[in-house]
Every structure is written in structure tokens, then in C-alpha cells.
Amino acid sequence: MQSIGIVCIIRCMTANTLFELIPAIDLKGGHCVRLKQGRMDDATDYGDDPAAMALHWQSLGARRMHVVDLDGAFAGKPANREAIRSICAALTIPVQLGGGLRDLAMIEGTLNLGVQRVILGSVAISNPALVDQACAAFPGQICVGIDAKEGMVAVHGWDDVTDVRAVDLARRFEDAGVAAIIYTDIARDGMLTGPNIDETANLARAVSIPVIVSGGVASMADVTACAAHVADGICGAITGRAIYEGTLDFAAAMKATA
């Protein structure tokens, strides 16, 4: 396993605010994988021990782990429960998880596995009242995942692109008590082409909810560019393929942002 880039908390040089770089573990059939543009038939397998992978990133300094239940996202109900439980049991840092959560019982069950924050994605557009109810029932533990293509919300494992603007969906939850919005440009996810910072920053400026960049983060330059928008409301970035394939080196990132 490569001892490369990871999660850390970097202090943005342009604002006295902490910026999180968060490693991603995507689960498919109990394995750690990365997809390209959300396509389940285009997955790269990085191992069959998600807990060991999570511990690896934690050992390199991770302060939070981002986990996606890909099977759950496509099936519309949680899967990979044992892998999720093992990750949470192995780590001492908080885990945030999304994929297939459709009602309060599913949310509570996931939190009971040891997950610290859950991410509601497709259901945020099909049943926005559930987000309100979940925020009230589990304060500080609910995030909204907004996946978009050309600024329009995509749902159901990214299979369907709606006619709802991402910024309008974000504004719907302005007063709900959402802990963070994870904004993913699906055209860039897993492609190592750089994140859509301009669009993410525009969304972050439109709401008071902290926004986390997802999709395309591939290099130290990408991390620096994301961190430069802390004042706009971007509080972090998620990286996956880059840290598995070595295009983002953690040591170099720390040196550059010291």
C-alpha cells in the first residue's frame, strides 16, 4: 500500500479557518473501490479490507473519514453494513456515510453502527421533509449530498438528472440545521481532472451551510485552490482516486500549506 496523501486539517493561508481534506472509501460488495463518473461498471478495486484501508488513512493523519455505500445508493437501501461497522469500530475519528438512506429508521440504524454523520442524497429531492425531520431528530448529524451534472441535480446513483438546480436544492435546507453539504460534480468524480471549484464556490456563497467539494480533486494545486475559497463557505474537500493512485502526496501538501 502506498504511503501517500491523505486526510488532514489544513489551515487556509488566506483565512483563519480550518479546511478539511477528507479521504474517501467507497464500498461495493464489501470491497474498497473507486468509480469513474459514478458508473458501477467502471470500478477500480483497491482491496477487500475496508477497515484496514480506513486505519491506513487514519495513521497518516486523517481527521474524518468519508464512506459511501455504493450498493446502497443504487439499491435504495443500506448494504455493506458489516464493512461499515468494522470501519467505525476500527477508527477513533468520525465517519460520515451516505448511500441508500431513505427514512428515519435507516438513518438511526446507520448511526447505531457508529457512524457520526449521515449523508442524505437522492431522498433530499424526493422527500425534503425527511431532511427536516432527520435534522430535528439527530442534531448536527445530518449532511445533504448534492450530486450534479452541469449544475442540475442527479439522483438514484447518478442514473437520473433532474430539472432541479443544485443551488435551489441547497437553499431549500438553509434553515433545517444541516451540518454540511457535500457537492459532487459527477462529470469529474473519479476522473482526476480537478474539481469544479467555480460552481462549488457559487453554491457555497448562496447558502450559509458549510460546503465540502467532491469530485476530481487530484493534486496539491486542487487542494490549495479549494482552500482559497474558505471565505466563500467551502470548508473542505474529499479525495479518493488521487490518494490511492498517488497523484496527491500528503507530505507535499503539508509542506506547501505550512
Query: What is the CATH class designation?
Result: Alpha Beta
Could you tell me the CATH topology label: TIM Barrel
Biggest β-sheet, characterized? 8 strands, parallel, barrel
- What topology, given as strand order, has the largest sheet? 2-5-6-7-8-11-12-13
Named CATH architecture: Alpha-Beta Barrel
- The total of helices stands at 11
Radius of gyration: 16 Å
Strand content: 25-35%
What is the percent of helical residues?
A: 25-40%
Superfamily (CATH H level) name: Aldolase class I
What's the number of domains? 1
Principal-axis shape equals globular
Q: How many individual β-strands?
A: 13
Span of the ends, CA to CA: 26 Å
Which characteristics define this entry?
TIM Barrel; 11 helices; alpha/beta; 29% strand; 258 residues; single chain
Brief summary:
This protein is of the alpha/beta class. The chain has one domain (8-247): TIM Barrel (Alpha-Beta Barrel), CATH 3.20.20.70. The chain has helices at 50-59, 70-75, 81-90, 104-112, 122-126, 128-137, 166-172, 197-206, 220-227, 241-245, 250-257; strands at 8-11, 18-28, 31-36, 39-45, 65-69, 95-98, 117-120, 142-149, 152-155, 160-165, 180-185, 211-214, 234-239.
Tell me what the structure shows.
The structure is a single chain. With 258 residues, this protein is of the alpha/beta class. The chain has a single domain, classed as Alpha-Beta Barrel (TIM Barrel). Helix content is 34%, strand content 29%. It is built from eleven helices and 13 strands. The protein has an eight-stranded parallel β-barrel with strand order 2-5-6-7-8-11-12-13, surrounded by seven helices. The two termini are 26 Å apart. The N terminus is likely disordered.
